[in-house]
Amino acid sequence: MDGETGDGIGLGELDGLIGYHIRRASSVFGGTFVRAVTGTGLRQVPFGILSVVAANPGIKQGAAGRALGIQRANMVALINELVDAGLVDRRAADDDRRAFALSVTPRGAALLEDCTRRIKEQEAELLADFDETERILLIDLVRRIEAREAPTSAD
């Protein structure tokens, strides 16, 4: 491949590595996310948690963490942050008193809705030259990659 950076520097072998391009694209989307939610106090991971909890009222804290690939210790701190901010309610699960069931508060739902609108507007701008079929294909391709777990060094 013969890709170059914007200033004419050749990428060499990097240009043929999909992971390199996905990482760079992820960085672009990360910046888009930050610009979209500036002033709301919400970051990417808590936004993801709010989204999963809103889509699955009563989900157990551990299940939400597994769905998002968040380690248990980190999930506890993140949920504490969301509870303290009044965005998520946490209560003992009905079927397992040792587990916590989560639900989004009205304040959390309003913030999630506002941030989602902002993010979608930013993404629409970023992907303005993609038609609907290309957007659907892009999501499908990335989901197929996500569905594969990266092998660990112990594998």
Compile the SSE list and pairings.
Blueprint: H1 18-37, H2 44-55, E1 59-60, H3 61-68, H4 72-84, E2 88-92, E3 100-104, H5 106-126, H6 132-146
Antiparallel strand pairs: 1-3, 2-3
Helix pairs in contact: 1-5, 2-3, 2-5, 3-4
Q: Give the strand content.
A: 5-15%
Instruction: Determine the number of helices (DSSP H or I, runs of at least 4 residues).
Output: 6
Q: What general form does the structure show?
A: elongated
- Give the helices and strands as they follow along the chain: HHEHHEEHH
Q: How would you name the CATH homologous superfamily of the domain at 42-122? A: Winged helix-like DNA-binding domain superfamily/Winged helix DNA-binding domain
CATH class value of the domain at 42-122: Mainly Alpha
Structural class: mainly alpha
CATH domain fold name of the domain at 42-122: Arc Repressor Mutant, subunit A
Q: What are the low-pLDDT stretches, counting only 5+ consecutive residues below 50?
A: none
Gyration radius, rounded: 19 Å
Q: Characterize the largest beta sheet: strand count, sense, and whether it forms a barrel.
A: 3 strands, antiparallel
Give the averaged pLDDT, no decimals: 91
Distance between the termini: 32 Å
Binned, the helix content reads 55-70%
Number of strands: 3
How would you describe this protein?
With 155 residues, this protein is mostly helical. It has a domain at 42-122: Arc Repressor Mutant, subunit A. Helix content is 57%, strand content 8%. The chain is built from six helices and three strands, in the order H-H-E-H-H-E-E-H-H. A three-stranded antiparallel beta sheet has the order 1-3-2. Strand 2 (88-92) and strand 3 (100-104) form a beta hairpin. Helix 1 (18-37) crosses helix 5 (106-126) and helix 2 (44-55) crosses helix 3 (61-68). The longest helix has 21 residues, at 106-126. The two termini are 32 Å apart. The mean pLDDT is 91. Residues 15-147 form the HTH marR-type domain. This is MarR family transcriptional regulator. It comes from Sphingomonas naphthae.
